[in-house]
Specification:
By secondary structure, this protein is mainly α. It is built from 4 helices and no strands. Helix 1 packs antiparallel against helix 2 and helix 2 packs antiparallel against helix 3. It is elongated.
């Protein structure tokens, strides 16, 4: 090896390693993009329900935020299960309890975060909901769904 000659086996191994690494990167990026599309659609449902309940029905914004988050969460779970993570080897019951744990925390973070920001900074509830939703989506939802809820066994 120290004679300065290139060894075919080493180059072939290096090629396979880089190919599979690039394949994994492409797969991960594709999954991340699908998850963001799913999250965006679910956020639309969440916000529409929240706005409707707050502005039309005149329900207190904290209750509306909670109900909107529940609505969006259901859409997100179904979409992630069938399209983003394409889970086939896990029982729905196993997914359901894991998703409920993560989703429950997400709803609590969204509801409390929205109320905290609105009350602390005296801004419109929608602005506080947007800020909170982005923080929770980036720091909690995707990471926990990928690493805990829909994790490959």
């Amino acid at each position: 090896m120290g004679d300065g000659r290139r060894h075919f086996g080493w180059n072939l191994q290096s090629f396979y390693c880089s190919y599979y690494t690039m394949d994994n990167i492409k797969r991960s990026l594709s999954q991340f993009i699908k998850a963001q599309v799913s999250a965006s659609g679910s956020s639309v449902v969440d916000f529409l329900v929240t706005i409707f309940l707050t502005e039309v029905i005149q329900l207190w914004y904290v209750y509306s935020t909670f109900i909107g988050a529940c609505s969006g969460g259901i859409c997100n779970c179904v979409t992630n299960y069938k399209w983003v993570f394409k889970v086939k080897d896990k029982k729905k019951k196993d997914i359901a309890w894991r998703y409920t744990l993560v989703w429950g925390t997400s709803i609590a973070l969204n509801t409390m975060g929205t109320a905290f920001i609105k009350e602390s900074f005296d801004i419109n509830y929608l602005y506080s909901k947007i800020i909170t939703a982005i923080c929770v989506a980036v720091c909690w939802n995707y990471q926990m769904q990928r690493k805990f809820v829909f994790k490959k066994i």
